[in-house]
Design brief:
The protein is α/β, with parallel strands linked by helices. Helices cover about 35% and strands about 15% of the residues. The termini are far apart.
Length: about 375
Amino acid sequence: MDTRASLIGLAQPALKDALLAAGVPEKSAAMRTRQLWNWIYVHGARDFAAMTNLAKDFRALLEDKFTLARPEVVTAQLSNDGTRKWLLRTGPGIEFETVYIPEEDRGTLCVSSQVGCTLTCKFCHTGTQKLVRNLTPAEILGQLFVARDTLGDWPSTAENRKVTNIVMMGMGEPLYNFDNVKAALGIVTDGDALALSRRRVTLSTAGVVPMIPRAGSEIGSSLAISLHAVRDDIRDVIVPINKKYPIKELLDACRTYPGASNARRITFEYVMLKGVNDSLAEARELVQLIKGIPAKINLIPFNAWPGAPYECSDWAQIEKFAEIVNRAGYASPVRTPRGRDIMAACGQLKSESVKERASARLAAEKAADELAAVQSAQLARMPH
């Protein structure tokens, strides 16, 4: 097992400290830090041998002490619509998924922040997987590195990049991994590193209310709220964190979100669940709830997964719902499902190993039931 430390995910001061600890002289450490920063984040270097402007002895030291390894790609899937999904692994049981969605005017990478999730949202496949642990900055950034490696998307400063937007909407709740997400996104938005503007980075939360002001002031990304209901009694069921932070508290935090404006609107995500949250009365209540918040509303057709407890709203109902929201002056695009054929659509992500273990468990339970039935039948035929 490779025990070398990864240099990916370290802020520049930490990168300099790592070099000093490895024996790099103080007088050259600042220059070496800048050189490495450029190679790692602008050029996407995968090994130290590629850093041809560095002295051979320095490259040998780097090779001995450090690594630039990406997460292991367990599976890579390509949807019929061009969506890509990678299952990545960084250790035993540490598996997470990331999804790239190409569109005409952008390419969006949906990034995970945790292995599993604690929130148990009833419409979300990830919510059926218990939390394993938070992802590190290296693992969060590693998802972007894998995507850019695959797409030939280096250097990070080039025009016409394929990955133009980052959304923290993959597995996990980003605000429950605040420090690591903040560190990773600081490198994503550094003009001398991965060079994406803050307006092209969106952090999605199910409503960890106390952390929302910190996200605005310390991370400064765009904000998306997984709302999904207009009444607490419904949201308590489908987004259980609502029991701790109800809708009014959540919306109050949105009204004071640092930097929110008509040019930088908060996105409210609303998954359309048939007979649960899709009535026209709820559409009218939704626009009243968010009144005064610079906002847009993403209506998301429910993406089913095996064993899902809900159905997607009928398309005609979604259109009527959207019309009410539009007439109230809010943009309400209906998100076109992408990557459904590879289980890469919104709410469908779940570590493959967990799926395999669940399948094995179900198969074992079925075999046990069948064996018990056979034994019962045999006992019934035995003479008394």
